[in-house]
Amino acid sequence: MTTLEIKDNVEKALSEIRPFLNSDGGDITLVEIIDDKHVKVRLEGACTSCSLSISTMKAGVETTIKKYAPQIETVENIS
């Protein structure tokens, strides 16, 4: 899979997650993908102060990204 295909798949995953975050006043943005394996995202809006943001990252964001792009090893939220 090419770098562009990986980015497209990660964006598809974020598009799937975004409505759930938007419904709680939050959002998510792809910041970068390093070596086609490590994704950095930015949780925004209400997600920045939510006590569940860590579990949102693991259970929601990371799982969904890996569903679309299985070669991704890590997903990290940067503020």
UniProtKB/TrEMBL annotation:
InterPro entries per the UniProt record, alphabetical: FSCA_dom_sf (IPR034904), NIF_FeS_clus_asmbl_NifU_C (IPR001075)
Transmembrane regions listed in the UniProt entry: none
GO biological process terms held by the UniProt record: iron-sulfur cluster assembly
GO molecular function, one term: iron ion binding
Residues of the NIF system FeS cluster assembly NifU C-terminal domain: 10-76
Taxonomic superkingdom: Bacteria
PANTHER family: IRON-SULFUR CLUSTER SCAFFOLD PROTEIN NFU-RELATED (PTHR11178), NIFU-LIKE PROTEIN 3, CHLOROPLASTIC (PTHR11178:SF25)
Family designation: Belongs to the NifU family.
Protein name in UniProt: Fe-S cluster biogenesis protein NfuA, 4Fe-4S-binding domain
Species of provenance: Flavobacterium haoranii
